[in-house]
Amino acid sequence: MEDRDALLKKKVQRTVEVLPAKELAKLDEVIARYAGKAGHLIPALKDAQEMYGYLPMEVQHRIADGLHVSPSHVYGVVTFYSFFTIMPRGRHTIRLCLGTACYVKGSKEILETIVREVGINVGETSQDGRFTIEAVRCLGACGLAPVMMIGEDTHGNVDPKDTLRIIQAYE
Ligand code: FES
């Protein structure tokens, strides 16, 4: 049975070349900045994600090669930390709280409206690149329940009936 690294390598080879040579050169600069330094992987991944908006397999694989770590280790780190994403994100990330305080005040209804109107599920990005939906456990603003964030904007005390009006303001 093939090990995880071999499987990941095959997956990368199947991936369409997503980055032109110029972009790869920028990534190589990031890698060179961190190569040989302790604790280098997470900062390198953060810089790469800032550049591309997400961490496709091709980028993960190049970082693994450049920093001399296994692709499976890179993939494990990327999938462990919620601030990393392997999927392209929409222009606006809707983060809806499904924590207890928000849930009892209607966040499930808000989520259902968003999923229905945007046409995607939690963790997905709309085809037009407008929205990515995330469900979170607490946004640290329980006094404003139910709460959702769209990008950097916090919307508190959201009336589920206002959900559509709120998201329509984001093009
Ligand atoms: S439970 Fe929703 S903000 Fe804390």
Would you write up a description of this structure?
The protein has 171 residues and is of the alpha+beta class. It folds into 2 domains: 4-80, no CATH class; 92-168, Glutaredoxin, CATH 3.40.30. It has helices at 4-14, 21-34, 41-52, 57-67, 71-80, 100-103, 107-118, 163-168; strands spanning 92-97, 131-136, 148-150, 153-155. It starts with a helix and ends with a helix. The structure holds FE2/S2 (inorganic) cluster. Residues 97, 99-102, 138-139, 141-142, 145, 147 line the site of FE2/S2 (inorganic) cluster (FES).
What labels describe this entry?
171 residues; alpha+beta; four-stranded mixed sheet; binds FE2/S2 (inorganic) cluster
Q: Could you provide a short overview of the structure?
A:
With 171 residues, the chain is α+β, with helices and mostly antiparallel strands.
